[in-house]
Amino acid sequence: MERAQERTAVGPAERPTAADTASADRPGTANTGSVDRTSTAKAHAAERSGALEIDLELLVHGVGGTTPEKMLDDPRTVRITGDDTAAVFRRAEDVDAESRPGDYRDRPVPEAYVWCNLTSGNASRALWLLLLPFMVVNLAHWMRPAAQDRPRTVRCYGLLVRLAGLTLTVLLVAAACEVALDLAAWQCAGVTACAGRHSWLGLLSPADGGWWSAPGRRLALAALVPTALTALLWYLSHRTWSAYESTRPLVHDPEPGHTSLGSPGFWYGRRLVARLRAAHTAAGLLTVAAAVLAPAAAFDRRRGGPAALDTAGWLLTGALVAGVLAVVWVVCRRGRSENHLDQELDRRLVRRLPLAALALLLLVTVDAGWSRPGWHSVGRLAGDTTFGGLVLSQGVLVIVLAAVAHDLHRRTPDARAAMRGLGGPAVALLGCALGGVISGGVAQRVSDWLDGTGTSIAGPPVLLTWQASVIPPVLGVLLTAVAWLSWRTSRLSRAERTAVALGRPGEPEDAARSRRIARVRAMAVLTDRTPLVVTVLCAATLVLGAGALAGALATGKTPDAAAGPAHTLAHGAAQSSQALGSWLVGLGFILFVTWGRRAYKDPSARRTIGILWDVGTFWPRAAHPFAPPCYAERAVPDLTWRMDTWTRRTGGRLVLSGHSQGSVLAAAAAWQLTPAVRRRVALLTYGSPLERLYGRWFPAHFGPAELGSLHREVACWRNLYRLTDPIGGPVRISDGDGPAVDHPPLKDPLAYGRTPGHPLPAPILGHSDYQADPVLAAERERLLARLRPELPGQRPQPGG
């Protein structure tokens, strides 16, 4: 009777529209679309008769991915809705479950949402590892502390991260300019000894006297390399947006005072991504234009060349400054629009900014290619000022960002927040440092490769050389932190042996078994040490980066002959560190390529790389448009549409069951539901990083207040975890008068020794195979009983 009253109360505004029905049958489901439409018609008929009583369990897998056959424990599965990228599956026998509600009165209909192809379905995506600095900076945007009634400070935080992301784009394009324009075209091609060792530079060598041998023309031709890099970044950003992030979310009215993850426009950043993509693309092209224009304009002013060239140089310089101001204005002018679904694009001025920058670059290359008698390439291009200014501006931005984050954390303290609210600035610093280290290491490695003797060319700017020298000390700090963590883990493992023995009373002691369980538990605790490791790494990076900047300003690449022995010794150590750093960068690049090729052939390696992106690309691209794509902008709308249309169509209740990263997607999708639908949803999470990782590192979105509101708004919530799980943990939310959200830690292994139920040694499951624990099935039954209080609970089986 209660169900019938609920269905009668549904007004016209709540019934599925034609768009909703069309969205339920996504492209790529032609083989199952007719089956789904038939079952839908039968379900509507059953609903009109008032006889429908059915529940659904929607399973969402975690990191690494899986198959629908494994999730549903049945070799015969059918795709209900979705495409080859992400889809919902059922067992073949459950396809028409809505037309047979009597067969499912004592159990829910299982469905599996498979989204692994969003992150690890293509081997070429392994090369997205090269976009790691952009992804790290983008994460910093979402790590701000929780803030109440501080909108201006929050906007200031987002603006600072966007500016840091812009400097990172300029830095990496400038590094490409340094390699192609300065080291190859200007220095090596201009020296006969260096160009003679590399036949591919013969076209540019002045010894041949060819048309391209003029310095300006060499620079114009070499500019194709950083221009192609910028175009490639633009293409990847545009292509991945079209493939992954263009899914239209479910439209609903914003809820006052609700968490931002429940905002209608949170998972649809179409306008901001397009805006930032235009600005960053223009910034990259303007960086290339500046690298070509600066030496030509400096020569014209120094030698008093033709007045026409000097005037053209000033005009181009003015246009370049205007373009830079336009890019900064576009980045600063607008942030994310989350309170409403913003489907508009910016005006043509913003969208045409890259074309204007490209036109300016073409004019600059034409100007540089003009004949300038007496112009010869000597020394290196003026890159010290450029890279020094970039590093200094990044340092200032990170320091101001830390001050803003500290103010937000101080006004809304959170004891569990990582690094006392400074996680965002720390990650932004690591992203900028990673870009600087890659730039310096690649420039030094290319310089060593081009200049076999080490005497024919001047090499990269001093600052990049010093940045390459930072790599070995940073690795030394990391190794020291790893050694300290290993020592702490060993001590904790010895302490855990006592806890393992006390947890198995009455069973004979097995020393090897106890040591193995204790070690796994101790290793799982390492996740909670991550903030400390990041703090040490950031402190070392800040000190070493400041030292590199100071060393670049104070010394040149070669020691002064009049300097004392201490200075000579320090410079010799710096040179050794620089050489080692350049080789380490080359080794790292080889490892990247090797890993990518292995991922092409080895599915397990592809799955490993997919795990990295499952964790790092959950968040939308809010600060950097060239970061890897956000899979949640497809997965969360998929889950929301499925839950909303199914509950409205059938009037049933739903158990949303998420493992690991799937629990994060489940929580995000539950926040996107309307309150009426959310009250029909029970949440079952296991191996969940919701509080342990996301709550600590992203307190503004998964903090105690946000998780508490989710608990109050869904029908019920139960969370399972193990002490041996390095990822999952408790969510630390009480349920008032009812049962707590967190179940006591599950037994792992299920049996300590050999038992009648486990005659062979039970494995230590850790983060996997939660479905194998009988507690999960029991907790699902309890959630169903709480969802349907009008029905009696399942009668316990004998011996169960």
From TrEMBL:
<feature type="transmembrane region" description="Helical">
    <location>
        <begin position="311"/>
        <end position="332"/>
    </location>
</feature>
<feature type="transmembrane region" description="Helical">
    <location>
        <begin position="278"/>
        <end position="299"/>
    </location>
</feature>
<feature type="transmembrane region" description="Helical">
    <location>
        <begin position="353"/>
        <end position="370"/>
    </location>
</feature>
<feature type="transmembrane region" description="Helical">
    <location>
        <begin position="156"/>
        <end position="176"/>
    </location>
</feature>
<feature type="transmembrane region" description="Helical">
    <location>
        <begin position="532"/>
        <end position="556"/>
    </location>
</feature>
<feature type="transmembrane region" description="Helical">
    <location>
        <begin position="576"/>
        <end position="596"/>
    </location>
</feature>
<feature type="transmembrane region" description="Helical">
    <location>
        <begin position="421"/>
        <end position="443"/>
    </location>
</feature>
<keyword id="KW-0472">Membrane</keyword>
<feature type="transmembrane region" description="Helical">
    <location>
        <begin position="463"/>
        <end position="487"/>
    </location>
</feature>
<feature type="compositionally biased region" description="Polar residues">
    <location>
        <begin position="29"/>
        <end position="41"/>
    </location>
</feature>
<dbReference type="InterPro" id="IPR029058">
    <property type="entry name" value="AB_hydrolase_fold"/>
</dbReference>
<keyword id="KW-0812">Transmembrane</keyword>
<feature type="transmembrane region" description="Helical">
    <location>
        <begin position="219"/>
        <end position="236"/>
    </location>
</feature>
<keyword id="KW-1133">Transmembrane helix</keyword>
<feature type="transmembrane region" description="Helical">
    <location>
        <begin position="390"/>
        <end position="409"/>
    </location>
</feature>
<protein>
    <recommendedName>
        <fullName>Integral membrane protein</fullName>
    </recommendedName>
</protein>
<feature type="region of interest" description="Disordered">
    <location>
        <begin position="1"/>
        <end position="46"/>
    </location>
</feature>
